[in-house]
Amino acid sequence: MKVKTAVIPIAGKGTRFLPATKQIPKEMIPIVDKPMVHYVVEEAVEAGIEQIVFVTSTGKEQIENYFDRNCELESFLLQNGKEELYEKIKSIGQMTEVITVRQKEQLGLGHAIACAAPIVGHDPFAVLLGDDIVLSEKPVIKQLCEVHENYQSGTVIGVMEVDRKETDKYGIISGSVLDGDPKTYTMDSMVEKPKPSEAPTCLATPGRYILNPDIFQALSEIPKGAGGEYQLTDAINLLAKDGGVYAHIFDGDRFDAGNIPGYLRATVEFALRSSEFRSDMEKIIVEKFSEIRKS
Ligand code: G1P
Fold first, then answer.
1. Does residue 245 fall inside a structural domain?
2. Which CATH number do you get for residue 187?
3. How many domains does the chain have?
4. Minimum CA distance residue for ligand 1 atom 9
5. Which domain, by its residues, includes 47?
6. pLDDT of 120-157, one tens digit each?
7. Residue 104 domain flag
8. Is the minimum distance from the CB of 206 to ligand 1 under 6 angstroms?
9. 231 CA: nearest ligand 1 atom
């Protein structure tokens, strides 16, 4: 069955970005010329997703507004002969259908996903976490949808190889590689943020999943887990006991924009990959590099 809905949890307080996030949601902080959340929604839309469910909290209204039309701005741009910008701004409001649902208490990622249950209904759906932005020829969510279609509509977790000393930042999977499909695993188990010495593998999810509605039953059964929160990882682990859960090593370059150093790196990389800003960024880097070498 085609995956038409994506759930994007955005209820977090963004404390790692304070004071910037005192008045604006973290997801609205721009990387080059677009807010972070734009890249994540773009990935979903390019994968054929038709409806985005934002799981929000108080103070996140700007995100909903961003994906709406702004007729006043559009007519201003038209009247001032800025047709190209007008088209760009109009297309953001037409990108996708947006629905929001509130997470009234911050009880963890598992709890956030459970909040979307009444909207998701009985169909498979994608989950994208907004801190991680992946640039790839084929959107990561599309790559995972293909695995979902190829393997009996199973649950699919997008994974990447990380350094062992970083396993305590991620959900880590273990499983066995499939015959004839060396990037796909049948998943035996998944553990949230294990210490490097306890991690079963170094295959980590940066927050890209295709889930089936059976996840909601699993979410209702799990106790609080790592960090005292309801963890999506624990619910997926429960499903894996009955089989039908796959992990797929996706193709793409992933940027962790959820902390300031990662965000700075993403800004430089995205500018270098932009036809509009590449030469400006190159100039800045070359100038700064020679200044730094002299000092
Ligand atoms: C969440 C998930 C974790 C995943 C990570 C990716 O953790 O619980 O399994 O690997 O996102 O960024 P968080 O970073 O929100 O604590």
1. yes
2. 3.90.550.10
3. 1
4. 171
5. 5-258
6. 989 999 999 988 999 999 999 999 999 999 998 899 99
7. yes
8. yes
9. 8
